[in-house]
Amino acid sequence: MNETTKKESATMSSTENVLRASHVAKTYDEGGLRTDVLSDVSFTLKRGETMAIVGASGSGKSTLLHIIGGLDTLTAGEVEVDGRILSKLSDAERGRVRNRSLGFIYQFHHLLPEFTALENVCMPLLIRGTAITEAEREASVLLERVGLGGRMQHKPSELSGGERQRCAVARALVTKPACVLGDEPTGNLDEGNAAQVYALMLELNREVGTSFILVTHDTRLAARMDRTLVLHNGVLQESPKH
Ligand SMILES: Nc1ncnc2c1ncn2[C@@H]1O[C@H](COP(=O)(O)OP(=O)(O)O)[C@@H](O)[C@H]1O
Ligand SMILES: [Mg+2]
Q1: Does residue 3 belong to any structural domain of this protein?
Q2: Alpha-carbon gap, residue 214 to 222, rounded angstroms
């Protein structure tokens, strides 16, 4: 990342908290079947902070990330992203906040199979209206940065698992979002590749100042983040650092 990028992210927004969840509750109610998933989730995430969310399978980690990311609605409470309360926005405004302030990385890369690595990384910029030459320039910088400078014209099927996830990291960061949300972003990789992708995300966190919330099963990877929060019985609790 060059000096201009650092300066841009430093002046992007003066809001100290990138994310704030306040008494978030979520109940799925489908066909008379009620599932209380989240009962009372509150936390704040500062600009540049990294946070791991851990918890048993089915504890609601993905549900929580979807709500924070504006992909699912909450039953009660409030989520604020970069100073905007999601539930008070129209669908179009919420879409803009997602595109402007958040980046997403999933367990499976979710790259578009018909497009090259370069085109995939360009996509979030094109969606926000960046001209194609500028988008390609910025996407190339990011792809170089994640070690895929020699793979820009490859399609996802022509990349290894680790390379695909590094491409997904580049796509999540190309818009210089305030926060990246990752749902088991290395869950599909072997230990070596998982450690490499984590190291890369933490380097980018330090260089660009992007906050990260990563859901993971791996307590060793979680320990590399600034904070670890545990989701249990619908409540999120800070786990003390040793
Ligand atoms: N769309 C849905 N409708 C009903 N129940 C759901 C839905 N999505 C998730 N759940 C339930 O919510 C709980 C939490 O799921 P999830 O957030 O995926 O957990 P985790 O990511 O921690 O494994 C599970 O019991 C799951 O069955
Ligand atoms: Mg999940």
Answers
A1: no
A2: 8
How many angstroms does the Cα of residue 199 sit away from the middle of ligand 1? 29
Pair of tokens at residue 32: 């008379």
202: in domain: yes
User: Strand 84-85 relative to strand 235-239: parallel, antiparallel, unpaired?
Assistant: unpaired
- On whether the CB atoms of residues 78 and 232 are closer than 8 A, the answer is no
Domain containing residue 92: 17-239
Distance 103 CA to ligand 1 centre (A): 22
Write out residues with Cβ below 6 Å of ligand 1: 28, 30, 35, 37, 55, 57-63
Query: How many distinct structural domains can be found in the chain?
Result: 1
Shortest-distance ligand to the CA of residue 66: 1
Domain-located, residue 10:
no
pTM over 0.85: yes
What CA–CA distance (Å, rounded) separates 238 from 117?
A: 37
Q: How do the pLDDT tens digits run along the chain, 242 residues long?
A: 444 444 444 444 456 899 999 999 999 988 888 999 999 999 999 999 999 999 999 999 999 999 999 999 999 999 999 999 999 999 999 999 998 899 999 888 789 999 999 999 999 999 989 999 999 999 999 999 999 999 999 999 999 999 999 999 999 999 999 999 999 999 888 888 888 889 999 999 999 899 999 999 888 889 999 999 999 999 999 988 76
- Asked if residue 55 belongs to a domain, the reply is yes
Gap from CA of 55 to ligand 2 centroid (Å): 10
Q: Whose CA is nearest to atom 8 of ligand 1?
A: 63
Query: At 135, which CATH number?
Result: 3.40.50.300
